[in-house]
Design brief:
With 254 residues, the chain is mainly α. It has helices spanning 2-25, 39-44, 50-71, 78-101, 109-133, 144-168, 192-208, 211-238, and strands at 47-48, 107-108.
């Protein structure tokens, strides 16, 4: 058990360090995918249609923890249930539903490859912790950490899915024109979809009360938090009538 605990500890620390490095990298320049793919990069990169890119890169986050669960003979535990219904539930939606509906721009191949590596790593880390390390009392579902975390998770997931729906409806499948998103949390922040996902994973971290989950939540904040800022700056430059009261990521604050 000590060996597996050490494994999760060091993998979590590495995940957090990588998140900080991404944060420092994006202080001046956003990650090069979506609307932030530079024209020169488009010409030099192999581009994959958004539907296939999202499916390929998100699939490991669903399959890897599922395989870890199924490999364990005693899989009917609270930890297994949480990683399956919460973590795998999110990535089932992202892999099989979001990817089939997205109207995003093509993604560079190297971004997809890096995402596959990360999703495999994180999927194993979260699944391994919940299956082999985390131990919960039988009444954990009554614990304030679980109940509050589950509520926060569902709230964030709702924001994320609704925001993706709003973005999808901004243009027809063949269009590439950008428009100002309106409705839902977009009335308050430019990165409503990012806000929803950040809230979601912090809810998961509270519900599971595990180091790997908190490391992933912090990684998510470091990775897509700056992206919300760059989206906000893009909208301000692109649209003269962009709502001035709208913030980047945190309503009324930032």
């Amino acid at each position: 058990m000590q060996c597996t605990q050490n494994l999760d500890f060091y993998m979590s620390i590495l995940l957090f360090i990588v998140g900080l490095l991404f944060l420092l990298r994006q202080l001046t320049e956003p990650a090069g995918y979506g609307k932030h793919v530079q024209r020169k990069a488009k010409q030099m990169s192999i581009l994959i249609p958004a539907k296939y890119g999202w499916f390929i890169q998100e699939l490991p986050s669903f399959l890897v923890p599922l395989m870890v669960i199924l490999y364990n003979q005693d899989w009917d535990t609270m930890g297994c249930k949480m990683v399956f219904f919460m973590f795998c539930g999110h990535y089932f939606q992202r892999t099989f539903i979001y990817s089939s509906l997205t109207r995003g721009r093509p993604t560079p191949l190297h971004i997809v490859v890096l995402a596959v590596v990360f999703c495999s790593y994180n999927g194993f880390l979260q699944g391994h912790c919940m299956v082999y390390v985390a131990v919960y009392p039988q009444d954990w579902y009554m614990d304030i950490r679980f109940t509050s975390g589950a509520i926060i998770f569902c709230f964030g997931m709702g924001i994320n899915i609704h925001s993706d729906y709003i973005l999808r409806k901004l243009r027809k499948p063949s269009e590439v024109t950008y428009r100002i998103p309106q409705g839902g949390m977009f009335n308050y922040v430019s990165g409503a979809n990012f806000l929803g996902e950040i809230v979601e994973w912090f809810g998961y971290a509270v519900a599971t009360w595990s180091l790997p989950a908190f490391a992933f939540a912090l990684f998510t904040l470091c990775f897509i938090g700056p992206r919300a800022y760059h989206h906000h700056r893009f909208y301000l430059q692109e649209f003269k009538d962009y709502p001035k009261e709208r913030r980047a990521l945190i309503p009324f604050i930032f």
